[in-house]
Every structure is written in C-alpha cells, then in structure tokens.
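Dear colleague,

Following up on yesterday's call, I've attached the two folding results inline so they're easy to grep. Please treat them as preliminary; we haven't cross-checked anything against experimental data yet. The first protein's sequence and structure tokens come first.
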Amino acid sequence: MSIASGETNISTPMCLSCTDLMRQHIKSEGDELYRSNEHLRRASEYMKANEQKNNSLSVKLAVEENAREIMELENEFSFLKTKASNLGIKINDLDCELEKLKSIENKIWSDICILRFEQNELNEIHEYSVEQLKHTQEILEITRNINVYEDIFRICIESCGVGSINGFRID
C-alpha cells in the first residue's frame, strides 16, 4: 500500500487493486474524453466545410446582389447623364437668352441716358421759354400802358416861325 500511495496525490493509502481500478476508470474517462474530442473535431471540420460552402453560396448571392445593384446604379447613372446633358443644353440656351437680355438691357440704359440728356435739354428750353414769356408779358404790359393818342406828333408853328414836334423845337 505504501508504494501505491506514494505515487499518487491521494492522502489516503490505497491498495494495488484499488489503484488499478482507479487507473482503469481514469483511462476509460480519458478514452471517452478522447472520443468526445474526436467527435468535436469532426463536427468542427464538418461545420467549417459547410461554412465554406455557405460562405461560397453567400458570396455568390452577394455577387449577384452586387451585380444587380451595379446594373441599377449604371441605369441611374445613364439617366442622370442624359438629364445632365439636357440640363447642359438648357443652360446653353439660357446663357444665349441671358446674353440677349444683357444686350437689350445695355440698349435700354443707353436709351435712358439719351432720354435724360434730351429731357435736360427740354427743361433748359422750357426754362428759357418761360423767361422769354415773362419778358414778352412785361413788354406787352408796357405797351398796354401807352396811350396812342398822346404819342401822335403834334406839329405846331408858333408866331415866331419855329415849329415843334411833341414839344421839341425844330429849326
């Protein structure tokens, strides 16, 4: 007993037959663990193989989905490219219209400047005409105050033989 208990970590002494039984029991548990480990390893390999198959299948599905997405994106890109082209044509048309409008605007501003110049000239002519009218009215008023009968030349001859016109002496 002392030999068997010295070889183990068991604190209680065991006989050789108990030790053999214990060794067989431990060996059977080890074998069972080995078989379980082997089953787990095979199951793991099977899972990895299926995972690779599933991965390749999911990769194929992903590739097909990506191909569909690429086709959709290409179609959308073509549509947007056509739309951009149409918008480019519209922009060019609008640029032409803008140039025409700028030309018309410049002509309008030129005409406005000419009209302002002419307006200033007409204002000056009007002011001059108003001044002339005032002056003419003043002259008219002066002429209204003139008595025509008083301004007739009176020729009279006095006894001394000297004549006078409107009081001025004529020799």
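Below is the second protein, in the same order (sequence, then structure):
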Amino acid sequence: VLFGTLGTVAYVRTTSPSQASSNFRGNSDQFAALSTSVTECTSPSLGPVLSGVDVVGYFSLSTDEQAVQGSPDLVARVGKYDFFFSTQRNKALFEVNPRKYMPQFGGFCAYGITKNSWTADSLDLPSDPDAWRIIDGKLYLFKSSSYLEEFVAGDVETELLGGYKRWGESFYSTVIFNTDCFWNWEA
C-alpha cells in the first residue's frame, strides 16, 4: 500500500500558510478552483500534511466529530513531509508506527480515487479534513460528507481494492501527501 498522490487541478487555499490562521477551516474567500501543478498541491514547502490536522487524533474521534488541529510545536517528519499533532502522546504514537496513521491515498478524496476517472497527470480530488472515516484501521478522507456517505453505503471493500490497484499502477513508488488541496467545506 502506498501513501500519497499527485494532482493537476485542485481546490487550493489561496492564502499562504503564514497568512492562514492556525485553524485549517477556511472561509469562502480563502479557496478557489485553480489549475495547478503537482507541487502546488503536494509541496512540503506549502505547509504540513492536511494543513496541520492531527492524523492520530482521528483515531480517537467519533465519526461525527471534526478533525483536530495539530501544533507546529509537535512535529514528526516522514520523508520531506511534516505532520502536526495536538498532543505529545499522539506524536509519540505516530513516530512508533507512522504507516498506521498516515492518510490513505495521500489524504486526497478516497471516493474520487476509487470511482472517478483520473490519471497521474489529471487528478482533481481535493478533500475536506472534516469528511473522514476509519475503515479497517486506516484513515480515509473525502471531498465532502455526501461523498463519504455515498462511499460507505456501497461495496467499500471492492471499491478500495480497485482504488489501491489504480493507485499502485499510477504512483508505484511515489510518496506524496496533500498539503494544500482542500474542498471549500464552508462555502
């Protein structure tokens, strides 16, 4: 199983990480649909994975709760990517077993990975950090709650198997995470 993705067209935050608040939830004027290069969606220089959401935190939330923002004071690095955490305990858990907590498909929309038509050169699958689900112990993000609900109502196992097959064919050895491609969940 690989973790990461590439993208050419996505919804990106239009403020720089230094201009953005410490909370990843934006307002409608912070987001725009843009044609973007791969690095504009996945560059570690844009900020932490999932704009600083604590990926370990998802594993202790109920499914109706929003993601928890991490702190730049609690950082673990995987390759060139930074992950933020809300507690020292979550950081320690991640450091022991990062693959357990890393978002599948790099934190891009699992519905889109499994159902949409895409290639490595045309991947338009932003996610909403508040539209998520733990499935078989793995973290998946979705573009919105409606995509999440449609996904879990279907044949999840078959869809994920197909998604991992396509993912492996497209991004065999590429490890890329979503650092700045999010659906405007407050529009």
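For the second protein, one point worth flagging: DSSP finds six helices and six strands in the chain.

Best wishes,
A.L.
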